[in-house]
Structures are given as structure tokens and as C-alpha cells.
Inverse folding.
DNA sequence: CTGAAAGCGCTTACAG
DNA sequence: CTGAAAGCGCTTACAG
């Protein structure tokens, strides 16, 4: 390991700008008595050197940042886990809601550094190489939850066992005697649903049951996607007798679509969801679903982030936590 | 306004302890070369003076803290609002999950101060007088969302129009021709559900319809409470033809209890919920419910907190944001 | 506009 | 153990 380079201070900047420390300080504090040319020179130097005020580098208070897409139930579960794990180690968790794609350019990474964060956790989104460069120079580790891409092993990630989950859910339906089993929901672009879909395919193949191309629909994860997608599936001839849905919301939508066609769940149609969210036990019939360990994923992500921040080495760049089949009322013998 | 007393610094502490600044600094940094007696003396002085290291008082990064009970959908909605409003003003939001009652004694307040927070938002829980004293000495404003007690006007609070919401929901059922209307859910101890209940009573009284004591049940806000409470109500003779539930979860539970008794919703039983949470449009029938502006409550709470932190005066210690009736499928003419 | 100088809060190597 | 002294990162009133 090479020696840690000294952090950039005001005097570093002053020296390279050829001005006094006082002037740099004024720029930093937004004083008006600085020539525009001097100001912009100093500003760009400050950026180039990733300047972080020493007061932001305090020792006592550790804060990690978690970036979510919005406060849906899924994100809430994960956030809850990180907060819980943080409280155990006296670490605060700051939440941010992502704006555009890739969290808003390199300014995003720079802001994190100057806000004094010790690590960043993002959900289902990878920082860009430019962002990673800034974060790594600042020694700010990143952990991605539910990663879209596992090829870059320099970024740690945590996810559920999507493939195995899809496999187990489908095997459950096969074991009940179903063979006309459809896959519903998820996005073709989301790694998580791709993996669930491949788990489904693997189980079908194992059982020697062919997968009809029409039996796979990936409109999205929401309730409305479930209603729409299940509608299309149920209007096929022959119609499936069972649906494995990539999310509970989709599964609930499928129940709705089934009832709208006069089908009874589970007597005429078995449905297995994915998530085991709160709604899973509030529907009628209650959902059979794959439990996804959201809270635990948050806990592991936070602990990993903390270990990385402390300079520890991580055993595995990607960790998967077990999903588990919860049998309720929406699945029945064919 | 009296002059702002100077903040406690190491030299304040050193002077009152009769030691040097260096020694105080050592205690602060947990060095071992300090006599135990000196250490404990300095420690207690540090506590007494609410010492906050100057590095925690940085100017650039503003962080407010929001305390939630757990990451349920209700809290998630509010948190989402605060994060959104914070992002607009470059303010970070740190989340904490409450432990015991009153957030864990005075240590809680002290930790907030030394973590450098600029304000605190809590949900449905008031700081104790001892906690308030510490927070006010540190000039750390508190905003309570969904307050349990409005008597202390020194604490700002934000909530939904619970009373009016209960009134409007009940009037809706009255207007549909119902008179055997029951109230279900909420806790007798929660101000929010008390207010909803009184809105219900006011509407009934206005319409000249008596409220039967048996028709009011307050087992709690959850799905299971709804199933249980609605079961009791529906087994009464005469049974109610309509139920106003204090939460969507209760309302969904009531649908379940009704179906279990062979009753059709809304043909045999009308149900109005409260919250307009995600599940409201995922049930069958879809819920007629009072929309609660969670996101907006979060936004207003954060803005209020920021204004207080900036030393501005607030017009009203308590603000209520409008709830709104959303008519879907679970309510029908009697 | 600019910067030398004084000053603040804090830390640390070191002499006692 | 203790503290005088040097030093660090930063800010600010003020002279030019």
C-alpha cells in the first residue's frame, strides 16, 4: 500500500492558484470582495483537487448515505434495515431520493464527499465510472443493493437470491401438479427479474415442461402491470392454470384480472408472488409468495459499507441473501 | 432578544475544571494519559455545558433528523416528503428509528446536538420536558408530525385534518342513505383517531342519527384489528350497513370480515377508509377513502423546521393539511 | 481586490 | 499525569 497522500487543504489550493490562503477562504465563503477571474480560477482548482473542508472530516459522527428511487414499500424495507444496523454502531443514515438517471452526474459524487459521508448505498443503480473515480479518490466506498450488473467487481453489492427464488416458486407450482405455468411481471431490463425468469425456466426445464413463448410477459412490477399482463395471459387458449408473478403487486393485479374473468383463485388459477410485502397477507386469498429479506439486505449493505470505509477487505464483491417460499392461500393443487 | 451567549468551547470547560485546554482535549479524544479523577470531572463538565465540538457546527451541510417508529407505509410517505423538500434546499435528512418511549431519555437529545443536526422532526411522539430543555439550549427546533397533544404551543406540529376528515367520510355515508354507520379502528389513546371519531360523531349528530355505543370500536390501526373489530360489528343485531374505518388497513380487514360472513361489499356493506395508501386501489372492491397528504405533511414539517432553525417566527404552532374524500368502489347507496 | 497578520478552536509531541 | 508551546486549518478585520 502506498502512503496516503495528504488531503487537499486551503494552502494547497492557494499555492496552485498563486493567491493567498485568505483569498481562497473568501471564495469558499462566497464573499463578494474577490475578482471574478480569481474566483473562477480558485473554484476550478477546488473542484480539480476534490477539496473537502476539514470540518466535514470530523471523526465522531459517521453518516452513510442511501439513495432510493422513491419511498415505496420496497425501499422502505431496505432503508429500515440500514437504519437499524446503523443505530447499533452509532452510525447515522441520510436518505436521498434519486433524480435523473445515474443520480445527477459528477456533482452528485462531489456533494457526497463534501457532505462528509463515509459511504454510499444505492438501490438498483450503479454509479458511472466518472462518479466512481471521484468516490474512490475520496475513499468513499459504494455498495449497490439489487445490482443491475455484476460484471464490475470493484463495486460491492447485495441482493436476494432471485434465480433460486424463481426456481423454488416455480417448483412449488410444478409440485402442485401444474404444467401450464406462466411468468408475469418484472422488466426485461432489470437483472432481478431476469434472474427470476431464468429460475422459472430452469425449473420448467428440469421438470421437462416446455415454456410457451406467450406464457412469458414482462410489463413491469406494478399492480397495473399485473392486471394488464394477467389479462393477456388469461385470454390465451389454452390459458395457464398457474402464474408466477415477479412481485406481490403483480400477483394482486393477477388476482384482480382473474376475478374479473369469473375465475376463482386458487381453485381455477394458482398464483405465487414475490416479495412477501405487507399486502401479501391482506389480500383474499392471502398470497403464497417468495419472501425477500429486505431488512436483512439493508443490514448487510450497511455493515459492508462500514467495513469498506474502515479499510477492511470484503470476502465477496456480491452477496445474495436467501429468499423463502411462504405458502398461504393463493396456490392449490391443479 | 438577549445576546446569544457564546458557545461552549474547550477553554470554557478547561477554565471551570481548573485544567489546561490540552487536558480537556485529551479527555475528548479518549487518550489514556489522563488521571481518572480529572477525566470524570472534565466529562461531567462537558455534559453540563452541552459541549459541541466546533467541527460539528459546520456551516455548509445542513442535516435535519426525522424520528420514525418503523418504516411502515405511513412513515415512508412522510419521510419521502421531507427528503424531497430537503433536496430543494440542499438539506440532508437523517433517519432514526425510535427505540423505547420518548426516544431514549436525555441522551437522545444530547446525541442530536453533538451530531450537528439543525432540527428534529418526530412522528406521533413528543419530546419530554428534559429533552426539550436540552434541544432549546442548543437552539435545535422540534416539529412533531401527527401530534398527540396540542397543549404545549412551544412545540410546532403538523397534521392532517382528522376531525374534518371523519366528518366528511361520515357525511358521505349519510348522503348515500345509510344510518346504521359504525366507527372502526384507531386507538382510544391516539389523538388522530380520537379526532376522526369526533368528526364521525359530529356528522351523525348533525344528521340527527343516534350513535349506538356498540357501533364504536377502537382496537387499533392494523389489518388484523380491522378483521377482528369488523367481525364484532357485523355480528351485532341490527348490524351496521356501513363502516367508517380509521385506516385503510382496517378497511381492508373489514372487507375480509364481511366476505367471510357472506356479505358483499359494497352491496351489503359500505366501507370508507382513511389514508388513501397504495393498497386502497389494489383491493377489490377498490377503497373509498379519505386521502391523507403524507408527502405534503413531510414537506411542510421540513420547511417549518428550517424556518425555525433560521430563527424565523412561525405563524401558527400547529398546522393541519386537508384530507380529501376519494370515492372508489367500496361505498354504495343504502 | 488582495494578502499579512492576528486570532480561534483544536491537537499533539514533548519536557517536566 | 499535566500543561506550555508549536502547529494546523481556517476566518476575518483591516491596511494597502
Amino acid at each position: 500500500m502506498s502512503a496516503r497522500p495528504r488531503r487537499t487543504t486551503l494552502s494547497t489550493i492557494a499555492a496552485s492558484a498563486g493567491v493567498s490562503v485568505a483569498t481562497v477562504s473568501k471564495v469558499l465563503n462566497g464573499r463578494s470582495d474577490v475578482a471574478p477571474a480569481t474566483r473562477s480560477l480558485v473554484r476550478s482548482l477546488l473542484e480539480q483537487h476534490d477539496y473537502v473542508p476539514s470540518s466535514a472530516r470530523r471523526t465522531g459522527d459517521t453518516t452513510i448515505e442511501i439513495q432510493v428511487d422513491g419511498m415505496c414499500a420496497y425501499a422502505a424495507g431496505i432503508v429500515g434495515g440500514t437504519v437499524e444496523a446503523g443505530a447499533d454502531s452509532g452510525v447515522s443514515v441520510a436518505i436521498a431520493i434519486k433524480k435523473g438517471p445515474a443520480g445527477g452526474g459528477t456533482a452528485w459524487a462531489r456533494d457526497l464527499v463534501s457532505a462528509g459521508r463515509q459511504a454510499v448505498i444505492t438501490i438498483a443503480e450503479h454509479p458511472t465510472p466518472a462518479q466512481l473515480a471521484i468516490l474512490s479518490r475520496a475513499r468513499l466506498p459504494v455498495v449497490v443493493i439489487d445490482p443491475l450488473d455484476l460484471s464490475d467487481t470493484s463495486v460491492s453489492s447485495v441482493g436476494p437470491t432471485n434465480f433460486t427464488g424463481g426456481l423454488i416458486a416455480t417448483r412449488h407450482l410444478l409440485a402442485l401438479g401444474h404444467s401450464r405455468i406462466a411468468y408475469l411481471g418484472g422488466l426485461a431490463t432489470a437483472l432481478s427479474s431476469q434472474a427470476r425468469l431464468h429460475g422459472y425456466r430452469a425449473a420448467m426445464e428440469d421438470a421437462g415442461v416446455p415454456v410457451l413463448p406467450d406464457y412469458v410477459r414482462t410489463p413491469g412490477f406494478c399492480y397495473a402491470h399485473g392486471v394488464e399482463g394477467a389479462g393477456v395471459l388469461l385470454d390465451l387458449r389454452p390459458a395457464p392454470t398457474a402464474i408466477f408473478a415477479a412481485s406481490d403487486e403483480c400477483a394482486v393485479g393477477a388476482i384482480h384480472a382473474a376475478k374479473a374473468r369469473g375465475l376463482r383463485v386458487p381453485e381455477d388459477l394458482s398464483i405465487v408472488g414475490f416479495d412477501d410485502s405487507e399486502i401479501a397477507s391482506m389480500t383474499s386469498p392471502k398470497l403464497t409468495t417468495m419472501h425477500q429479506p429486505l431488512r436483512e439486505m439493508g443490514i448487510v449493505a450497511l455493515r459492508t459499507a462500514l467495513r469498506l470505509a474502515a479499510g477492511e477487505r470484503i470476502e465477496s464483491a456480491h452477496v445474495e441473501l436467501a429468499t423463502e417460499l411462504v405458502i398461504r392461500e393463493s396456490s392449490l393443487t391443479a
Remarks:
- The two ends of chain B are 61 Å apart (CA to CA).
- Chain B has eleven helices and 14 strands.
- The first strand of chain B starts at residue 62 and ends at 68.
